[in-house]
Amino acid sequence: MRVAVLGGGSFGTAIASIAADNGATVRQWLRDAALVDQINHEHRNGRYLPDYPINPAVVASTDLAATVAEAAVVFIAIPSKAFRGVLEQAREHLRPEQILVTTTKGIQAEGFKLMSQLIEEETGSSHIGVLSGPNLAAEIAQKQLTATVIASDDAVTRAYVQAALGCGYFRVYAGNDRYGAELGGSLKNIYAIAAGMAAALGMGENTRAMLMTRALAEMSRFAVALGANPMTFLGLSGVGDLIVTCSSQLSRNYRVGYALGEGANLDEAIEALGQVAEGVNTVKLVCAKAREEGIYMPLAQGLHHVMFDDVPARDMARALMENEQSSDVEFMLSREAVSQAHQLAPDGDA
Ligand SMILES: NC(=O)c1ccc[n+]([C@@H]2O[C@H](COP(=O)([O-])OP(=O)(O)OC[C@H]3O[C@@H](n4cnc5c(N)ncnc54)[C@H](O)[C@@H]3O)[C@@H](O)[C@H]2O)c1
Ligand SMILES: O=P(O)(O)OC[C@H](O)CO
């Protein structure tokens, strides 16, 4: 199998190395000639994954056309802000039978588009997939046992990606809800920022469990309103990714939240990170979309106030705790039914 990876960051490098470990012929495209040289000669990505060796069979290049030329599968691991631009450059070199897979967990502001939708618009391909799951690049680079999802309505895409990446330390499950899997990967970054902030403020495990579980309720409420299948959120690309990203200092989104919780401002937190934290942009886009569509998203809106309106995180947490008490699993008991029933109890002030 011939595999191309577009992107020289931590995840692109991790994916390239898995495919090479699995016996594929792997080409990786990046812009930085010095980093290309380092990957090809030292088998290391000193900028993004400095502490881990890369399979020596990975060949990096600054030549986009040559990178994709022979590939059966092309993975695109480019931050959402640059994703369409890279597709525009790649488009003329791609062939209709090639399988195009996004690994990017972000949203384009214009039109609230997910990356697989950009691939569809730019290429018209019928072999499009989303790779998403609890996949911290640094842990993959250590060959920690890891699982992911290839979500596509195209059986050929699912089969090729399972064959390209499935190996002794990386297990690839198949899904057919591309939109739900991709939305889950983007939304969880919002709550990872909140979880990092809560940890920095000394909040405990009960708090983290509450935050993650209510985040899942909020994510699935949003996804259902936008037409995704809520069952997808029970899988690796939903709750699985939410767990890892809300629990680990290896997550860039968690680290941004942690820095904010320690008192840094947003610019300082982003600068200290030096890599992409998609959640910073996603929280803005999701809050705007939720307002537009009338979707109840108290955690995301609360985080937005903390990040962009200077509301202290502890004040926001207190306000959220004092919100009207609601339903646990609203697919079974609606929020409206709980709210209406409040009049049946004696008034707390009486
Ligand atoms: N790192 C992880 O653990 C991880 C895991 C799963 C998914 N992802 C997702 O993968 C995507 C990429 O993440 P990453 O971790 O590799 O990011 P990163 O910040 O480590 O690297 C981004 C890479 O994209 C390159 N890039 C940026 N703009 C470009 C442009 N215009 N043209 C060409 N290259 C450009 C950068 O030079 C860099 O090599 C993100 O959306 C992220 O959500 C990351
Ligand atoms: O480092 P983050 O926060 O972008 O998260 C990485 C992956 O999405 C975890 O699955």
From TrEMBL:
Residues holding NADPH: 10-11, 31, 48, 105, 137, 252, 276, 278
Lineage, opening ranks: Bacteria, Pseudomonadati, Pseudomonadota, Gammaproteobacteria, Oceanospirillales
Pathway: Membrane lipid metabolism; glycerophospholipid metabolism
Family that this chain belongs to: Belongs to the NAD-dependent glycerol-3-phosphate dehydrogenase family.
PROSITE patterns, A to Z: NAD_G3PDH
Domain Glycerol-3-phosphate dehydrogenase NAD-dependent N-terminal per the UniProt entry, residue ranges: 3-154
Record domain Glycerol-3-phosphate dehydrogenase NAD-dependent C-terminal: where: 177-316
MF annotations from Gene Ontology: glycerol-3-phosphate dehydrogenase [NAD(P)+] activity
Catalytic reactions on record: sn-glycerol 3-phosphate + NADP(+) = dihydroxyacetone phosphate + NADPH + H(+); sn-glycerol 3-phosphate + NAD(+) = dihydroxyacetone phosphate + NADH + H(+)
UniProt keyword NADP, yes or no: yes
Residues holding sn-glycerol 3-phosphate: 105, 133, 188, 241, 251-253
Keywords attached to this entry: Cytoplasm, Lipid biosynthesis, Lipid metabolism, NAD, NADP, Nucleotide-binding, Oxidoreductase, Phospholipid biosynthesis, Phospholipid metabolism
NCBIfam families the record matches: PRK00094.1-2, PRK00094.1-4, PRK00094.2-4
EC assignment: 1.1.1.94
Catalytic residue list: 188 (proton acceptor)
Function field: Catalyzes the reduction of the glycolytic intermediate dihydroxyacetone phosphate (DHAP) to sn-glycerol 3-phosphate (G3P), the key precursor for phospholipid synthesis.
Name the record gives this protein: Glycerol-3-phosphate dehydrogenase [NAD(P)+]
Subcellular location: Cytoplasm
Any Pfam family the entry gives: NAD_Gly3P_dh_N
InterPro entries associated with the record: 6-PGluconate_DH-like_C_sf, 6PGD_dom2, G3P_DH_NAD-dep, G3P_DH_NAD-dep_C, G3P_DH_NAD-dep_N, NAD(P)-bd_dom_sf
